Amino acid sequence: MALRYQHFITPTGAAEFPKVVRGEGVYIWDHTGRRLLDGSSGAVSVNIGHGHPRVLEAMREQMNKIIYAHSMRWDNDPSQALAERLARLSGWNFEAAFFVSGGSEANESAIKFARQVAVSRDQASRYKIISRVPSYHGATTALLGITGDADYARAYKPMFVEMPKVDAPLLYRRAAHETVDDVVNRCVQQLEDTIIAQGPETVLAFMIEPVGGVSTGALVSPTSYYNRCREICDRYGVLMIYDEIMSGAGRTGKFLAGHHWPDCRPDIVTLAKGVSGSYAPLGAVIASSSMVEDVRRSGGFKHGHTYSANPLGCAASNMVLQVLEDEELMPRAAVLGERIRARLEELKQRTRVIGDIRGIGLHMAIEIVVDKDTKEIFPDEMRASEQIGLICREYGLLLFSRRTAGATYGEWLMFCPPLTISDVEVEEMLAAFEQGVIAFQNRL
Predict the structure, then answer these.
(1) Could you tell me the domains of the chain?
(2) Is the pTM above the cut of 0.70?
(3) What is the distance between the alpha carbons of residues 49 and 45, in angstroms, rounded to a whole number?
């Protein structure tokens, strides 16, 4: 423990974590030899499971060729192949990709790219990014100003510019007198009012997760919300950026979560996590070739990283996406998602602490409450979702728990297993979760 403090800084401040030693399929093993089912795919990123032989072989082949080439001096085959594959899978006339090392870098790159697009179009007054509360878009200082979670930003407040925020349509937490349409109308109107109040000529983009990540617990909005937000952005010349770091790469049953709402085409999309299956650190920004051409004509994209378009990472991602298609994992995610949701709804009826089950495909979350009839939130100090996660671990299941802004908006567990999970493993996961929830409820 002393060495851990001395040599490795734990992000949570914990003195010691369990030590992982091996992963295979949907399972990981700790240093004691105990096997655990990875029910949240790590940080919702191990989309095709651990140790897939085709990905490992593709990485070995690439390592025997070259593992690094400076992207500002060299092109490479894996990055070209990956860009072409992403264009095909993404559709929507997204013909160009820029590769980085992860989600924060992807979102940072996206807002810088959007800014350069505006400058190239003689709209240099546009620089503000509107986002939602709650939300999470990354850990860089610029993104902390966009992220709608004060807990993440508090220590760094003097170091960044706070960007304007609007409410996310938290349907489960709506007031008793509000209908779904009321919530949509309120949130959409707030977006337009904010653009007008900030000065439309200063607003660059509206950044949202089309299906929420950990900050909202897999929030899904009505179709009218997406379409009306798109209309408002078009009305005022505001770009729309979809943060699909967590929801993209097939997890919802479609390659992009945004594909579920085809009439709301974003201008820019960011990907990471599942796009490489976490076999290598990789993120991507995808956009239209017309936007890229505007930036090129104005002097090129003034941005880059040492590991941008890394050949090894791109080779791994290429094979992950090949497996996604060859094994038909996207349609399977849609089918399994419906099956799992139905079983969780049955469990909800037999317990009082499961408040809401939401999401699409294998991108789901379960909101935990004191009582499902009142929707009362557990006190922050109780850390209820974290407790359930720890109890589930006793039954062999790992789940990612989260409380946003000190549980101001609630707390949940991310139910996001690898897309390769088998029917037998689904049953094992559901049985362990049921045991964990009931054990937690019995301790209250």
Answers:
(1) 2-51+328-443 (3.90.1150.10), 56-326 (3.40.640.10)
(2) yes
(3) 9
